[in-house]
Design brief:
The protein has 10 helices and 9 strands. The strands form 3 sheets. It has a 5-stranded mixed beta sheet. A two-stranded antiparallel sheet has the order 1-2. The chain has a two-stranded antiparallel ribbon with strand order 8-9. The chain is elongated.
Length: 279
């Protein structure tokens, strides 16, 4: 129990929490400090710029960036420019708005301001991901991830688009195993957290490994299984994984990436054994 602000009556913790919540939502003039690591072009240097954004209930980080764009004046009351960032779906499906928010890689559209301020009352800090080249501000070039998907042939090859009848049946068990892997949105969270994915490594990354396992499990895409396994046994493949398991901890879709990596290790071993015996 705590004394109330007037010192007369004790109040429960629940009452205190409710009162604090009400004041924080109804207080007029409350502003959020937003610190952004900015960079004007891919070859330029970076610098910090702080903005003060009026608080609104139910805001997410995308809302904060929209408010800055509407009034790009920094905390020193100097006219600035809108913060560049990537976005598309605004519902954590496309992965485009991934950035480092208060030290954690995640999507801006699903990062709620109330939760961020509960953990860090002093404000919000936004940085671009560090494993990709910065295009401008928080907007990075994720093309290495898409290049990796091309390398492992993350598609189902077809002979044409005419009707050739029903495809092979997939059992409910196979569907249950494949669906979590299919939720990958190539957001970059896993490679941002991966110590093996960096400028000095050719590691293909956990997302591409998991997608290779997904398509090798598909009854039609399986015809290119050995091509995918050849990539995973080559330079930058599965052998470069250090098993830090950071990837599975930060994945916003809870994809069992370490399970895929373990399966890739088994599949590539059997692939090499078959090669040794000429099969």
């Amino acid at each position: 129990m705590e004394e109330d602000p007037n010192g007369k009556h004790p109040m429960s913790a629940t009452t205190h929490i409710h009162q604090t919540h009400t004041l924080s939502h109804e207080g007029n003039g409350r502003k959020i400090s937003v610190k952004v690591l900015r960079q004007s072009d891919p070859r330029g240097g970076s610098h910090w710029e702080t903005f003060e954004v009026p608080y609104e209930p139910g805001m997410n980080v995308t809302t904060v960036l929209q408010r800055i764009a509407a009034n790009p004046t920094n905390a020193e009351h100097e006219h600035s420019t809108p913060v560049a960032y990537d976005s598309c779906c605004l519902e954590e499906v496309c992965g485009a708005c991934t950035m480092v928010i208060n030290g954690r890689v995640r999507q801006a559209c699903s990062a709620l301001v109330d939760s961020l301020l509960a953990d860090s009352p002093e404000g919000i800090e936004l940085r671009p991901m560090t494993k990709f080249k910065v295009v401008r501000d928080l907007f990075v070039d994720r093309s290495p991830m898409f290049a990796a998907l091309k390398r492992i042939k993350a598609w189902v090859a077809v002979d044409g688009y005419h009707d050739i009848g029903p495809g092979p049946r997939i059992s409910p068990r196979e569907q249950d195993e494949a669906y979590p892997l299919s939720r990958c949105m190539t957001c970059g969270c896993c490679v941002e957290a991966c110590p093996q994915f960096n400028d000095h490594s050719t590691f293909i990354g956990p997302a591409a490994i998991s997608q290779a396992i997904l398509f090798n499990a598909h009854p039609t895409a399986r015809v290119e299984r050995d091509d995918r396994l050849a990539v995973l046994t080559g330079v930058g493949g599965i052998v470069d994984c250090g098993n830090s398991q950071n990837c599975v901890k930060v994945c916003p879709k809870d994809i069992p990436l370490t399970t895929s990596i373990a399966k890739a290790g088994r599949d590539t071993t059997l692939y090499k054994i078959r090669q040794w015996f000429g099969r």
